[in-house]
Amino acid sequence: MSNTSNIVVFSLSGFNATVYRVTLFSLTLLSYCVILVINVSLILTITLDENLHEPMYICLCNLFINELYGTAGFYPKFAFDLLSDVHVISYIGCLLQIFVIYSYLLVDYSALALMAYDRYVAICRPLEYHSVMSVRRTAVLVALSWLVPLCCAIISVTLTSTLQLCGSHIEKLYCENWAIVKLACSSTKAIDIFGLIVMTFYIGHFLFILGSYVQLVKSALKSREGRRKFTQTCVPHLLCLFNVSASLLFDVMYSRYGSAAVPQSVNNFMAIQFLLIPAIVNPIIYGLILTKI
To answer: In principle, which of 14, 91, 122, 200 could form an S-S bond with 173, CB 3.0–4.6 Å?
Structure first.
């Protein structure tokens, strides 16, 4: 039995089936530049325009900052590996990448839940909106949308770091928690229980968002102004929620139940699309639909 202290690096076998690496590197660099430009542009637009200093746009700015945070944990290393003949990552670097990507996903859901609550108050309780969603309360909720996911990620990575591993071969393009757990030859009960708790907590987020939108739809149907507000501010949020949820679901299904018959190139795409599509599509959706932006 190999102890984790004996493992210095992990090998990433997902690159074995990668062809046209220079072309992929160029596309990766282009994608990352697009992500940086559109997210930074929207963050600066919201920050510098005083007319956008409202709870909804503060929540949006929080979402765009998180996109930059999450992609920073993947793209630089991925681009470097595309041009390298050796595809390895250090043990500490692997845990750090797991922490960033894991916390990025959780913050994304927390941010979407916060945005759903903001829209619920704005449309269903408009007279109370400015008292309920004050700037101070919004700042506290935004801070919690980061604090709770970061604590969850710290606990998860700490539990993973205590596992005894019997291998160092990761069948992906990057490090992720489930890939490390599958290498364990010691008990994974603690991390399984904690993972179930976190999953239940964030399923609660999803149900909360759905419940909010049931109330939003009921309220929006009562007036033309309600329908206009819903179409303009809630449809982008629903599209982003579907985008993130579908991308994450595909990754989870492929990580745990992916078939060996599926080509490695398909597995690779399914493994990175939740880091690629939301970071590009979400700011474009809001940038095009929200008239103030």
So the answer is: 14
